[in-house]
Amino acid sequence: MRKVEESLSLIREQLAQVQRPAVCSSFGKDSMVMLWLTRQIDTQIPVVYFSALPHPTKHEFKERIEREWELN
Fold first, then answer.
1. Residue 47 has what DSSP assignment?
2. Which of these, 3, 7, 29, 71, is most buried using a 10 Å CB contact count?
């Protein structure tokens, strides 16, 4: 739990330094952790989908998470 709290603290610090924050996500495992952590602080942060490679399963997963988490 200490790592989560440290991560949340770092994210809060970074969010405080910018006027219009956004999260870039590929919806891979690392991006999902970052997105989940960031949404613990602010659920209204815009999410930019980084779709580097065509991958139908990942796109379907992204669409499911987008609906379930009500991403903007």
1. E
2. 71
